[in-house]
Amino acid sequence: MPESNTARDVLALGVLISGGGTTLENLISRIADGRLRGVQIRQVVSSRGAVRGVEIARRAGLPLEIVRKKDHSDERAFSAAIVAALERAGVKLVVMGGFLCYWHIPRRYQGRVLNIHPALLPAFGGEGMYGLRVHEAVLASGATESGCTVHVADDQYDHGPIVAQRRVPVLPDDTPESLAARVGAAERELYPHVIQQVADHGVEWLQQQVQV
């Protein structure tokens, strides 16, 4: 049977952040006003302490842990600390919201970690491709459209099965900042839409979307 959610079976989210917390802020707002239903943010993990996303989590009263790479002996220890925080909170779905650090996804969470990238993957992805760098590369390529991609994360940067994409035009007078604003607006719609599908139909729905 599919793993579905009812009013008493809320989808427990863990949100990973590294910076401004735009994705986190959007999810908080949509849960609060009912646009995102059957979802609860159970844990926020930030790879940095002094960032806006941390303040957003604190103001919202969300459980928060700061897990910094430099505080751990190696990548495995860093990843284990992230996983421990998620497991303590009973997280079912992990949402990466501008999380800039590599972490090893254990078997328990494989197929349960989503990422959103501000381009149409597989183009303009990979290590070091984040923020304005992505939009600069899109403009330099001469592409006539861009957009955003929600995908199931694996152990490679911006890699893994694509769940959904939303396209936006690249305009002749675009700057990296103006393109980023247009793509960001698409992200704020697409990511909650995918999360809502998981909340409505269960994690099995997500796994079905990525089967070849």
- Number of E-state strands: 7
Can you give the helix content as a percent range? 25-40%
Poorly predicted regions are: 1-8
Query: Radius of gyration from the CA trace?
Result: 17 Å
Content of β-strand: 15-25%
How many domains is the backbone divided into? 2
Query: Which architecture of the largest domain would the CATH scheme give at its second level?
Result: 3-Layer(aba) Sandwich
Strand order of the largest sheet: 3-2-1-4-5-6-7
Order of helices and strands: EHEHEHEEHEEHH
Number of helices: 6
Termini separation: 20 Å
Mean pLDDT: 93
- General form: globular
Which CATH class of the largest domain?
Alpha Beta
Major sheet? 7 strands, mixed
Can you say what the CATH homologous superfamily of the largest domain is?
Answer: Formyl transferase, N-terminal domain
CATH topology of the largest domain: Rossmann fold
Which terms summarize this structure?
212 residues, globular, seven-stranded mixed sheet, Rossmann fold, alpha/beta, disordered N terminus, 7 strands
Please tell me about this protein's structure.
The protein is α/β, with parallel strands linked by helices. It folds into two domains: 11-109, 3-Layer(aba) Sandwich (Rossmann fold), CATH 3.40.50.170; 116-212, Rossmann fold, CATH 3.40.50. The chain contains six helices and seven strands. It has a seven-stranded mixed β-sheet, sandwiched between helices. Helix 1 packs across helix 5, helix 4 (132-141) crosses helix 5 and helix 5 (176-201) packs across helix 6. It is globular, with a radius of gyration of 17 Å. Residues 1-8 have low confidence and may be disordered.
